[in-house]
Amino acid sequence: MERRAAAHRDRPSYGHDALITCDRLVRVFTTDGVEVQALQGLDLTVQEGEMMALVGASGSGKSTLMNVLAGLDVPTAGAARVAGRDLLTMDAKVRLNYRREVVGFVWQQTSRNLLPYLTASQNVALPMQLRGRGGPRSTRPARAAKGERTKELLAMLGVTDCADRRPHQLSGGQQQRVAIAVALANSPSVLLADEPTGELDSATGEEVFAAFRRANEELGTTIVIVTHDQTVEHEVRRTVAIRDGRTASEVLRRTEIDAQGQESLVAREYAMLDRAGRLQLPAEYTAALDMEQRVMLELEQDHIEIWPDGTTGQERS
Ligand SMILES: Nc1ncnc2c1ncn2[C@@H]1O[C@H](COP(=O)(O)OP(=O)(O)OP(=O)(O)O)[C@@H](O)[C@H]1O
């Protein structure tokens, strides 16, 4: 008993090795005395260097989660850590620093990503200039380094030819690729994107996802994308579904090579078991078996069986 207690005590804490950890995250909004629980004890970990997608029905809590991770909103309860920063206890100064240096974001509305009166190059250089403000006057080599980084980012994202154009002179896809360059300017640990292809046609959307993948592969930046776009399935190895303010299921994809050397993508869906042991069963499964309120569980040697209430022992055996 003592040994078991010690093993439990010495177990590493939840998400200790992850870059992003959300632990029983709660966000309650109160409007005119009515409470909305946008996040209801959400658990999520994202490893450093991962590129993953968050999906879910409208109102499931995706944008609320993104705003928390972006440092724009503070959760009501639970714990959230990104790159070692505690998102619940940051003061205003640390929060500003976090938004400038630790996270970058790309929003759906292109007008929210770029300043209309600046060229693409100037938009990319701006976060680097804002970061340097307050310190000693920028030296010529420091300015040259920022110019060099701007060029490199625009080249990596395939928009070098857009450098001297203003946003209204760019297509929607070009605007979003420049927006990715802006978000990467200060080498953030995490890039967050909320419906970045929402206003684009599917071919242009694919180009934007490819730009995210390039940033992930070439710079190693961890990327979290909220999307309704089905094409994301071909771009990310992990998709987490959010339902009613909690992570509900997860699809992992991996490449398998058969005996003939043929490559194929194999996808496997998992249900999420939260920290309290709660499991969300897919609505279509519970509806198919008329499962409501109560189910029976049986522990077998290597799995657990779930039966509708009222199933007799004879039926189960
Ligand atoms: N500032 C707010 N004040 C009150 N309620 C809010 C606020 N922001 C979000 N909500 C509510 O919280 C719930 C989750 O909203 P959220 O925007 O996170 O969902 P979503 O999954 O991003 O939806 P969509 O895909 O439509 O953007 C919804 O019921 C929404 O109405």
From TrEMBL:
Residues 23-269 form the ABC transporter domain. Keywords: ATP-binding, DNA-binding, Nucleotide-binding, Transport. GO terms for molecular function: ATP binding; ATP hydrolysis activity; DNA binding; transmembrane transporter activity. GO terms for cellular component: plasma membrane. Residues 268-311 form the SpoVT-AbrB domain. Transmembrane segments: none annotated. It holds the Pfam family MraZ. It comes from the Bacteria. This is ATP-binding cassette domain-containing protein. It comes from Streptomyces corynorhini.
